[in-house]
Specification:
Elements: H1 11-23, H2 28-37, H3 44-65, E1 72-82, E2 85-94, E3 99-105, H4 110-124, E4 130-133, H5 137-146, E5 151-154
Parallel strand pairs: 1-4, 4-5
Antiparallel strand pairs: 1-2, 2-3
Helix pairs in contact: 1-2, 1-3, 2-3, 4-5
Length: 157
Amino acid sequence: MNTYKRHRFPPEIISYAVWLYYRFNLSHRDVEDPLAERGITVTYESIRRWCIKFGAIYARRLKRKHQGFGDTFYIDEVFVKIGGKQHYLWRAVDQDGEVVGVLLQRRRDSVAAKRFFKRLLGSHGQEPRKITTDKLGSYVASRADVGCDSRHCAVRQ
């Protein structure tokens, strides 16, 4: 089945606009400009609809082609209030700035850190060469429990 059926623009233009939006983290209005430079007049609202409709398809395709993450992870947690209650958003980023893993939890203890490390190492497939964290004591205990042999660097932030 043709997913581009009943669209005014050809599939190449639609896919290019959606690719620009997701690849370079542009707004819908910012995607209009490169298209206008090429003589393609399209509204930001059309681009928004294309991103909603085709974004998941392209994201899956890009994820399959993804070459992998770097060998250095930077891990930190952020305080987030949801419904008036404090939660912790655990996040891992590689040296290129790509998000490797994210986990939202209510606690900030070694059990929560262990759960995050298990999920991170399980989804990543291979162990990173170096892990940089803040000086939270839960990281040291949880890394040992999970069996992570990566070099650990604790930096005060």
